[in-house]
Amino acid sequence: MNIPRFVIAGTSSGVGKTTIATGITYALHRRGLRVQPFKCGPDYIDPGYLSLAASGYCHNLDSWMLPEGNLKELFSYFNRSKDIAVVEGVMGLYDGHRKPEGGGSTAKIAKIIDAPVILVLNIAKMSESAAAMALGYCTYDPDVKVSGIILNQVGSQSHLRSAKSAIEERCGVPVIGYLPKTANLTLPERHLGLVPVAERGGGKSFLDELGDLIEEHIDLDQLLDLARKAPEFTLKQNAVLFPDHPISPRCRIAVARDEAFNFYYEANIEMLRAWGAEIVNFSPVADSILPAGTNGVYIGGGFPEVFLRELEANLSMKRAIRDAVASELPVYAECGGLMYLSQGIADFRGNRYEMVGLLPGYCEMQNKLQRLGYTKATALKSTPIAGKGQPIRGHLFHWSKLDEPDQTVAAYQVTDPKEQLEGFVLGPENNLLASYLHLHFGSDPRLAQKFVESATHRK
Fold first, then answer.
1. CATH architecture of the domain with range 251-456
2. Among 74, 146, 294, 452, whose Cα sits 20 to 30 Å from the Cα of 125?
3. Residue 204 above 80 pLDDT?
4. Residue 252: which of 39, 93, 417, 451 has the closest Cα?
């Protein structure tokens, strides 16, 4: 399978990967190419900008949560009708999970998909020293193919010449472009990172400005040439994440999508659809009822703490979700979804707002991150998505705090990074699963299939 592709990696976080990856994606899309963007690692916000730039969903690639074969299947599946794949890295090129099994780094993913790497260097406070940094990244792992370099925060043409000539002479890798220090295109941030696209609105003028800057300063033709020289992409296993034949819709799963809830691995949604779910969106902020004919509910993460007044005031939607659980519909909630289903949320000042009230206790926002990182767990009960005893791999990232569940209602026994109980299983038929744990259904094909089967049984 011929998939032109490249990975945009950085020497560290904050060097401009997202701005450059978004701009390149948009510039290529504007040229008429069908661009498939991907984001390395467990990120929700960066993919929103890449999706906007490509006018199509960005998908996450995570080599810690997903077995290698599953990652390659997902990469192949979403490139079926595309002209080029643009993969944005995470943190620094070689940063990942430092436990014995490793994984999670941009370098690991670049090797799995056999893609050339375009390295982004911020050279605001260096010139020829940039060559020493680039040389280290180019030689640290001989199996990582650093094929081009983009310089960010370039102060002048003499600054560019000094760094460019040193890098190309010492590393033998072309500098294919740069962004000037004068470019004022910083994306807005808050406590979980960038502000989501869903809250910013259209963004077309920002993309046009960014696309023009990319066209002016980065050699896209050279970049395309590097991407097209990527070797043939091969799969070594049969499909496991997606069925080998189309499955007609057999249930309806309502997915919470609005400015408060928009953190989803888009592959999760596509896997549910592929296994027979009709996906219908609804807004806990603005809608008064669940969509007609709903057989299951999926409430992802997001920023419910930013929309507390609106969520508290929407009494009819809170009642509709309580009724869905009482009617034994499978309801799955992650992180922000868990917060919404709790008794209430206390904001950063301690002000309390009443939420759905299905889980005990208040989620209290904290002034520092509570948990962050890859997590291994075991399902303690059969739930709408997993069987009792099933091993789970996921990711935690939250600023709120909720008392740990007791053994009678706990969803998971976390085994790594430290042992603790996590999440809740409630409802008349254990049909409600709510947890801080974010799951990528690509980690285990049983997850999406069981959710669809659980919803189908409630028709």
1. 3-Layer(aba) Sandwich (3.40)
2. 146
3. no
4. 451
Q: What is the pLDDT of residues 20-57, one digit of tens each?
A: 999 999 999 999 999 999 999 998 989 999 999 999 99
Instruction: List the one residue out of 442, 387, 253 whose CA is nearest residue 332.
Output: 253
Residue 188 has pLDDT above 90, yes or no: no
Task: Identify the CA nearest to 304 among candidates 425, 448, 394, 198.
Answer: 198
Alpha carbons within 13 angstroms on the beta-carbon side of residue 129 total: 5
Q: Which residues are catalytic?
A: 335
Bridge partner list, 60: 39
The CATH 3.40.50.880 portion of the chain extends over 251-456
Please give the pLDDT value at position 20.
96
Q: Write down the CATH superfamily of domain 5-228.
A: P-loop containing nucleotide triphosphate hydrolases (3.40.50.300)
CA distance 353 to 345: 5
Whose tokens are 């996450």? That residue is 60
Q: Is the pLDDT of residue 190 over 50?
A: no
Q: Do 177 and 206 form a contact (C-beta atoms < 8 A)?
A: no
